[in-house]
Amino acid sequence: MSEPILEMRRVSKSFFSIKALRDVDLTVYAGEIHALMGENGAGKSTLMKILSGAYRPDPGSEIRIDGQPVQISGPLGGRAAGIAIIYQELSLAPNLSVAENIYLGRETSRGGLLAREAMQAGAGPILARLGADFTPQTQVANLSMGQRQLVEIARALHARSRILIMDEPTTALSAGESERLFALIRQLRAEGLAIIYISHRMDEVYALGDRVTVLRDGTLVGSLDKPDIRADTIVRMMVGRDVSSFYKKEHDPSARPGAPVLAAVDIADNSRVKGCSLTVHAGEVVGLAGLVGAGRTELAHLIIGAAPMTSGHVEIEGRAVSIRTPGEALDAGIAYLTEDRKALGLFLDMSCLDNINLAVLGRDAKFGGILDRDKARDRAKRAFATLGIRAANVGVPAGGLSGGNQQKVLLSRLLAIGPKILILDEPTRGVDVGAKSEIYSIIDNLAKSGTAVLVISSDLPEIIGICDRVVVMRAGHIAGQIRRDATSPLSQEEIMALATGTEQLDA
Amino acid sequence: MPDNGASAKAAPAAPGLAAAQETKRQRTRAIVRAVGMLPVLLLLCIGFHVLSDGRFFTGQNIGIVVQQSAVNTVLAAGMTFVILTGGIDLSVGSILAASAMAGLIVSKFADFGPLWLPVAVLTGAVFGILNGALIALLRLLPFIVTLGSLTAVRGAARLLGADTTVFNPSVPYAFIGNGALTLIPGIVSIPWLWVIALLVILVSWLVLKRTVLGVHIYAVGGNESAARLAGIKVWAVLIFVYGVSGLLAGLGGAMQAARLYAANGLQLGQSYELDAITAVILGGTSFVGGIGSIWGTLVGALIIAVLSNGLILIGVSDVWQYVIKGLVIIGAVALDRYRLQGSART
């Protein structure tokens, strides 16, 4: 290959006495998609923040662009060096138009007045090149997540960036939007851009990556070229050990079938969920699969009373129950783990201790409302020990923890209730490999002890790895279900066939 | 794979170090939060003492300061509950006036005279619960609801006395307004107003830090959607905090009435809500909710009282007092922000 466009040599970064990065090398060529992988906290974000100019590397670090040493200071420095980052949380102003966002911070003016027409005319060709189906005048608030990402990319291209960093770009996208994004990324590669692609998802790295670089604990583990990219190799590099028993499934309800605990009967909300029924038995793990937007989360919200159902009802242990609020669902023994732990699950400013105990404070309280602080502390400490939550102590705010540890804190809150029924919505999203494996073993143990578990997940290997039965949703309906038995294991193809249906849905 | 054993051994060491660092940072942050504006308060006191040739730290002057801060402390305690949930209560000054009017009117009936105190407090609680119900059940913005009741309740206060001043020179329990609790006869006595204010702070602290309801208040302020999904009755928490704010405004009205033997629906409690909000903010409570402490509020209320008193002591003219007070408030909060900057969560 030709000269590298970006070379990072012996890049280190310390925060006080902690080394977040130690002598990391990274070489990226023009016209390649370079996947960057590693567990949460491995140093990927730190490395990218150095490239964007948000952090200044330690002395001795060297960054070369086109062979020339550069100093990147501040966000403008990154932009001047031709580097653009597309963040997980999109950084667009939703109240402005597409053109205004593309030109944000570099507005064209004529005689001190904003030259709106010129900006719109300038944005047009870039959007056309990206195949956008909206105009520069469109207000960003009216765009889907996929379209917004396109605007971000357009902004990067407009700034003549040649190195594009994408940080988990598909987390908020539907399957169709992701496919279109992949096509676009390949097009940009063909145009000679260098793309650094950060992702936790192995299938994306397979599909896109020309090379993979793996970080662990702030150090470089190594790089793999395309022919060497294999899931088990990458996982071993990320975790530093063999993860042969990655999915854990020892419980076996077929040996000792449990009674039906949760039954949703013909539930509908008149928009996203159209008459869905499903049953979960004691000691069983049922997967709820489907494309993004199929109505899985909405169905869960109806079951736990977070949204009003217009028809249908819920039965618990054979008795019809009325659940109108999440509080009533908890009283009935249903605990729900949200897919959006930061917005809907955790209290980031509150301690892990309070986060873990929140749902059982009332049950533990003395004299009808005085906190039992010893009990709370004991419970939090026990949760830290049994779930392997890594934080300085139970008193630190939950917001400071890594994704996997946050998820375990949230899970501890639900487990503290001792629910009969546990609904887990994307339990391993944004969670690193090690914590994933631990969460699977927690789910397995719950099923062994007789809890009925419903797992909503977009990660098919995960569903196949841990579930006894899979219910598949498509466009608000139950499209079908697949049972695991000794002769035929669950298959990814079967699930996808049900999820997409014969008539290909446009997501 | 390069050297698995070594990296496996090295790995736990780094998080351990990070954890220790984190605990230390946590502790510093907690201390900064807890101490908050206390150094500013002490500096102000010492400064005024020096500038006024030693007239600040006298028994009599301290008595005046705490007496003046008492009503605002009580209002600010209620405001702390509200702001912790991410809300605001602009109506406390008006509720204070209406409660004082209702109380004094009842006190003039010979038969139920002594009942005036609970009547004043309950009047406040009723207005507060109305605020809370509008906010929690109709999902209206707290700013707008309480801006409306700021005006409406002020009108109600004037209606109560037919727009006149109500006097009662023989109001029962007048001692709470002007008397003092004697601890050591002839040497140490504490104004009853201040005793009430301290009790309010103490009870607030107990509720916020030692009860389930307290945790729920912080939770609603920290993340309302998560609180709802966690099964917390958010509407009940909201009605409670506005109810408390109203009730304490009612108590403030009673304290004011007992002190003045009179109440006027038009003038009493004008713009008291601003001093209460200022005290809470000076106390380090986050304006978006979820973070803060009642002790900070107490310090904030004292800073306001010390400023007023000290500026008069050193002979600053009334006009300049306003300017200086405003600047000190902005400066103090800016200082607080600056000190907390390094510890902000990433």
Give start-end ranges of low-pLDDT stretches of chain A: 502-507
Based on helices, strands and strand pairing, what is the structural class of chain A?
Answer: alpha/beta
- For the secondary structure, the number of strands of chain B is 4
Helix count of chain B equals 14
Give the DSSP E fraction of chain B (strand runs of 2 or more residues).
under 5%
Judging from the principal axes of the Cα atoms, what is the shape of chain B? globular
Number of helices of chain A: 18
- Shape summary of chain A: globular
What would you call the structural class of chain B?
A: mainly alpha
Helix fraction of chain B by DSSP (H/I, runs of at least 4): over 70%
Query: Judging by the overall fold, what is the CATH architecture of the largest domain in chain A?
Result: 3-Layer(aba) Sandwich
Name given to the CATH homologous superfamily of the largest domain in chain A: P-loop containing nucleotide triphosphate hydrolases
Organism (chain B): Bradyrhizobium betae
Membrane topology (chain B): Multi-pass membrane protein
Subcellular location (chain B): Cell membrane
Keywords (chain B): Cell membrane, Membrane, Transmembrane, Transmembrane helix
Quick rundown:
Chain A is α/β, with parallel strands linked by helices and 507 residues long. Chain A has 18 helices and 22 strands. The longest helix of chain A is centred in the middle third of the chain and has 16 residues.
Keywords:
heterodimer, A: 507 residues, alpha/beta, Rossmann fold, 3 domains, 6-stranded mixed sheet, 18 helices, 34% helix, 25% strand, disordered C terminus, B: 346 residues, mainly alpha, ABC transporter involved in vitamin B12 uptake, BtuC, two-stranded antiparallel ribbon, 14 helices, 4 strands, globular, disordered N terminus
